Amino acid sequence: MLIALLKTMRPRQWTKNIFVLAPLVFDRQMTQPIALLHSIAGFILFCMASSAVYIINDIIDVEADRNHPKKRNRPIAAGKLPIPIARFAAIVLLIVTYTLAFILSKGFFLIIVVYLLLNLAYSNWLKHIPLIDVMVLASFYVLRVAAGVSLIHVQRFSPWLYIVTTLFALFIGFGKRRAELNLLAGDANSHRKVLQGYTIPFLDQLITIVSTTTIIAYSLYTFTAPNLPTNHIMMLTIPFVLYGIFRYLYLIQVQGEGGAPEDVVLKDHPLQITVILCGISVMLIFYIY
Predict the structure, then answer these.
(1) Higher model confidence: residue 79 or residue 84?
(2) How far apart are CA 77 and CA 81, in angstroms?
(3) Residue 136 CA, distance from chain mean position
(4) d(Cα 263, Cα 289) in Å, to the nearest integer?
């Protein structure tokens, strides 16, 4: 039962919470112990909050998940984790998380309260509205970045990164919807009502728009943000972003993957290498160059 609970908490999806650390990295504060500790604590608390949300969502969606070819294997849908125990675990996680968050930072506390309320609204209503559903999913990534900002004394963090995060999250979200349409094929509407509002050609157009604007926005960030080296060396990271986006497009449109972005990142070695090399480049430019 403990293993079933851990699976329901979705530890693989904790990789999304790395966005909480983005302000620490891009504001060049990784060498400051207090900022580092606060950001790590925020990352852990956001993992706990998101796990509570995943448990709540699985309880709400239990009947729909039982009819889904993949989601029916989730512990609650499969009957491996009783709903009363799952509900109790979610309550404990929320109490511990929000108590510690309030102690850590009032701003951080308010952000994860908004994160929880928005998730509940998404699970009950917003996920059924085409376009709004993906925009709400994208807002969760922006909230993670905002949470990271609330934990440190920001000195040089560029607003451009909010724009890049939003566009990148939309790119991932539309890719996920495309993968769901591919997976469920003609039976898509019976599993997720919102898929009635999407078609593969429509999603491909949206993916093209947001992938293009993501590249443009990141490129503009590399030579206009005030906290970057004046010789524009940050532009050397653009090829990594280009390849990462192209590789993800290849995976969702040619290989038919992309249903769970965190799974793609954890399984695809070229994408992993790209992320690592991009991260190393950013660290060298910010902290050694």
Answers:
(1) 84
(2) 8
(3) 11
(4) 33
